[in-house]
Write the structure tokens for this entry.
Amino acid sequence: MWRVSYVVGVLIVGLGLFLAVGSVYGYTQLDADQTRAERLLAEAAGEEEMRWRQVYIAEIEDDKGSNVVVALGGLAMAVGGTALVVVTRRRRRVSVPS
């Protein structure tokens, strides 16, 4: 039974790290996109174009916030999976006589 919880813990750690790394990568991409969008906003010709670009920047900021939340959730999953692996190893050491 300890093998199942060990494997589940390792899978949770892997999934959590995958989500965290993907979110950080997405955040960096959005950051670069926001810089470009802000430059285009400064070059906006009319009022309508300026409003559309402001909306686009607001969407980017919203997506960046979502990436931060997903990255924190992924790190929490990785910590939980690590805790499961540690607890499983400790139980195994206590239950197996030396």
